[in-house]
Design goal:
Length: 248
């Protein structure tokens, strides 16, 4: 019995000493860290010095010939001006005035946020051409179809491997959604969908939206969407068709 008392008592003393005993002590030694949580990391902070490199800078210059994401070759990459590479995002917008060269822009305007004031805006902020749609289809198929499926039904290949709740983009709610809100979802993601702010350029996000709208329109097409002469071939007789007044 007494043995247990001594064990308990010494544990109690140890506990009290460990909590209160060393308070107020000063030490130059680093504290014992049980879970350092990556507080200190072997990395350079921005703009810091480095003895490792001959020029004492930790920030390095681009390797000559580096091609930024979204460009296809260094020849067409001109950092300060419009460029003319049919396969890059800039071409989707053409040299559209102030928006000719925005790539990953984070400016606060509609083009880069989808917002007008404190509301979602709607509409593609540049002329939509066949090249835009082609680019949009390509980017959609690369980036979105894996989850959302080729026509946006939410049944892409990833849905077969356990990612639940992929939005069906053909549903009325998303058909009614402002383009700006979709832009925001592409940029920042939503719940289990990750954002594409650093991987899809701004013009490409709009091109994807233009293509997505085409998918929605195609899926919900009616006879009225066809040219009249073609629509006629598909017109079925229907009891709803009222007879002309003189035949009634
Ligand atoms: C890794 C799978 C995945 C990819 C890739 C993906 N999405 Fe999604 N997306 C989701 C999921 C999951 C949701 C449902 C998120 C929620 O509301 O819980 C979603 C939701 C959405 C919504 C509806 C958002 C809302 O407000 O309800 C839109 C629009 C959308 N995605 C567009 C896109 C576009 C455009 C792309 C390509 C750039 C894309 N997604 C790529 C998984 C994905």
């Amino acid at each position: 019995m007494l043995r247990y008392f001594f064990i308990g008592f010494s544990l109690l003393v140890l506990l009290i000493v460990s909590i209160t005993g060393f308070r107020g002590w000063k030490s130059k030694r680093p504290p014992i860290e049980i879970f350092p949580d990556m507080v200190r990391q072997a990395k350079y902070k921005a703009q810091s010095e480095s003895d490792f490199y001959a020029d004492d800078r930790s920030a390095r210059q681009h390797v000559p010939g580096t091609v930024p994401l979204g460009y296809s070759s260094p020849q067409v990459y001109q950092p300060d001006g419009p460029h003319h590479d049919a396969s890059s995002a800039g071409d989707v917008m053409g040299d559209a005035g102030p928006y000719g060269h925005i790539e990953f822009s984070a400016s606060p305007d509609y083009v880069a946020t989808g917002r007008i004031g404190n509301q979602w805006g709607t509409g593609i902020p540049f002329e939509v051409t066949a090249a835009t749609m082609k680019r949009g289809r390509e980017r959609y198929n690369i980036n979105c179809a894996v989850c959302h499926g080729a026509v946006g039904m939410g049944n892409g290949i990833v849905s077969k491997y356990g990612l639940n709740g992929i939005a069906n983009q053909q549903q009325q709610r998303i058909r009614d959604m402002a383009d700006g809100e979709i832009f925001n979802t592409i940029t920042w993601g939503k719940n289990s969908m990750m954002g594409y702010a650093s991987t899809i350029q701004v013009p490409d996000r709009w091109a994807i939206i233009a293509y997505l709208r085409a998918l929605q329109r195609a899926e919900h097409a009616t006879l009225q969407d066809l040219p009249e002469d073609i629509a006629k071939q598909y017109q079925k007789p229907s009891i709803d068709n009222k007879l002309p007044a003189n035949l009634q």
